[in-house]
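Quick review question:
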């Protein structure tokens, strides 16, 4: 795809050089070539060709954001007041927010996993969880009927499982054995 762009620009330059012949064999200057190419790109055909090129998936994939200039531009855009306003508006769009979250999902999971292992982050989370307002909300949640029903359902499912039954049987056997030894 990048080859297509280079080929188109080369053809435009060549056409500009051939079309500029004024009877003598002198080459057009750099400024003349530049002006011709820019004029060609400003035409409807030139604009249409550029639109088609930028809609091509291969070209978009070839344009990598690793370029330092692109990184610098993005960082500057994010930190300016106008950039913050633009991002604020973009993030209000649910479709954009969902797509952005989807593309960043794996990186966010890795970051959260790394943060959970960080002692200072753990301490900060504990401070948040110990906040009186949050504790009041937890207590209110624990008192709700739906929460109690959910806990009862979870306990019933756990007790119905084979692992729990085996542990219960082992504990009862051990208790009966100890009672039998005390009665002797």
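Suggested answer, residue by residue:
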């Amino acid at each position: 795809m990048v080859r297509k762009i280079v080929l188109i620009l080369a053809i435009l330059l060549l056409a500009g050089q051939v079309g500029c012949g004024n009877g003598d064999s002198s080459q057009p200057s750099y400024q003349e070539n530049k002006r011709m190419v820019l004029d060609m790109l400003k035409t409807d055909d030139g604009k249409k060709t550029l639109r088609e090129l930028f809609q091509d998936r291969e070209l978009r994939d070839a344009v990598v954001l690793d370029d330092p200039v692109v990184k610098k531009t993005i960082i500057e855009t994010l930190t300016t007041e106008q950039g913050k306003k633009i991002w604020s508006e973009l993030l209000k769009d649910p479709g954009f927010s969902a797509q952005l979250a989807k593309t960043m999902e794996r990186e966010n999971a890795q970051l959260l996993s790394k943060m959970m292992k960080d002692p200072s982050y753990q301490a900060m989370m504990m401070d948040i969880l110990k906040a009186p307002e949050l504790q009041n909300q937890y207590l209110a949640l624990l008192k709700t009927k739906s929460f109690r029903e959910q806990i009862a359902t979870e306990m019933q499912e756990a007790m119905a499982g084979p692992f729990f039954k085996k542990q219960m049987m082992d504990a009862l056997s051990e208790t009966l054995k100890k009672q039998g030894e005390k009665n002797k």
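Why it works: The chain is about 85% helix and 0% strand. The two ends are 91 Å apart (CA to CA).
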